[in-house]
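On clarity, I found the account of how folds are encoded harder to follow than it need be. An entry of this sort, consisting of the sequence and the corresponding backbone structure tokens, reads as follows:
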Amino acid sequence: MLKLTLWPSALLLVTLAAAAHSAQPAGEPFSYSPARTDVPTRLLWGDTHLHTTYSPDAFSMGNVALTPEQAYAFARGETVVASNGMPARLKRPLDFLVVSDHAEYLGVLSALEQRDPIVTGLPAARRWMERLHGDASGRLAMIGEIGMKFSMGTLDEVEAEAVSALRQSAWLRVNHYAEAANRPGVFSAFAGFEWTSMPSGKNLHRVVMFRDDADRLTRVAPFSALESIDPARLWDYLENYEATTGGRVMAIPHNGNASNGLMFTPQTFDGEPMSKAYAERRARWEPVVEVTQIKGDGETHPLLSTTDEFADFGTWDYGNLFGTLDKEPEMLQYEYARSALKTGLQLGEETGVNPFQFGMIGASDAHNGLAAVEEDNFWGKSADHEPAVDRAVGRFVNAEPASPKVDRWQQVASGYAGVWATDNTRAAIFDAMQRREVYATTGPRMTVRFFGGWAFPANLLAHPDYVRRAYQLGVPMGGELTGRGGEAPAFLLAVQRDPEGANLDRLQIVKGWLDADGNTHERIHDVAWSGDRQPDGTGRLPPVGNSVDLATGEYLNTIGAPYLAVQWQDPEFDAERPAFYYLRVLEIPTPRWPVYDRVRLNGQIPGEAELVHQERAYSSPIWYTPG
């Protein structure tokens, strides 16, 4: 990870640069053009969490046709036919995609549906295939049986043999499609999988993302929750993969809002206190976390951040993944990213290692093969949530005894990962995620820069090459700062709106810190905003306004600003206490996807549905550690 060297560096850098300029080697031609720099200047957009028909739940929810081949094609900007029969296409292509079908029963139902020749040599698979292609009741019963045995881990020996063979066949096809779709410099196609641990329905899922090509990936089989539901055993698998193949791999924790207090607990999976060694392993294998997706936003919760007026965004707090266990208030602090970052400060002081020093990204977790999370081009969570007159009506989760339920209109059209990379290749994207130089958005593609350091000139943002200088003098998002004699670091923030989207309302710094008694705190600072608004007596900034026309689904950029930038110092900085800072970007109000459904399809909207919201971005934090 990037760390800021503590030497007084501004003068030294200027001196060295001048010396280097004057030291042109004899006999070498002088180059007038500036030398190529390796600072990350390419902003790449992608989805790290997408399911196709190879996932058993995706298949059971109606996606029986869209394979990884169609998923990569759609992400590249090609038109595909969705499960509802409509043509589907992104307005703008993505730069990369991780296909992450569930490792458990990977490709099994799809192989049975397609009458894959491998099935004929597997007695259990033949029996399943006959039932799948029988009458409707037999088909539903077979899918239900597979799902039950998946969740309970009750396969017999013959069934386990069939599943193993079908999974490995599917894994080879996933890698084949990824290699065919990969275009270095243009589009990066990653083969991955999702490890689907969910004890008592509590979501501990992780997406496994590889840096490598099929030559290495096909030497291993995906690791599933049928083998272990303990994250530490997944880390063993990752460690073994790197040791045996020479490749690189990471795990990306799922948005934690359906984990019922397990995702960011300060204990091990077995309930033991977290040791330094355990903290090191978690930090090593899980450098980034998914904080926003279709099943809700995971930055924070209004009960955790009671003074944050924007905390209640995309809130899904009904219970566990299946809605079968209620949510208790004490669970929340171990589910959301901001509180996890604060817990990490405590664990860092207790164990010497911060296990929750993670970057933040968004992803879709769509199960229909379509990585589409724009409000006006939202294809839903799964095939049975694709555009239709009534898709906003009814329950999304409807299980007893959990209450309240989640309605279909509450699907959040989110999110994407913004990655600062040196090139559009698997290696460069993976490396950017490893060093946490990434950020999450709920869908819009705003350009976000965030740096911290002590040597920034006061007018740095006025320089056309401020980015290069900021890398020289500080650290980017995801970096670490170590104390420097009591002086407060400065933070450099610059955000350009999505060129095809809404203006910006404001930029906020979210600070979390640990006091001398071991208690954590947080504070939101409005640091840049549009217009001539001024904070009131309580420090609260007036709303930006609202230009949304619900009848047409249109909004106007007559409010807000296309670009906001500022250099900021923490007025309450305490050099003796560890802290983190991250940037939250808020757009002006815009319509949600049910509004566009009503305009285009005469879609039905429940009276309680939220129709307008403020989309956002979350940078990876910059951490401060006392010297």
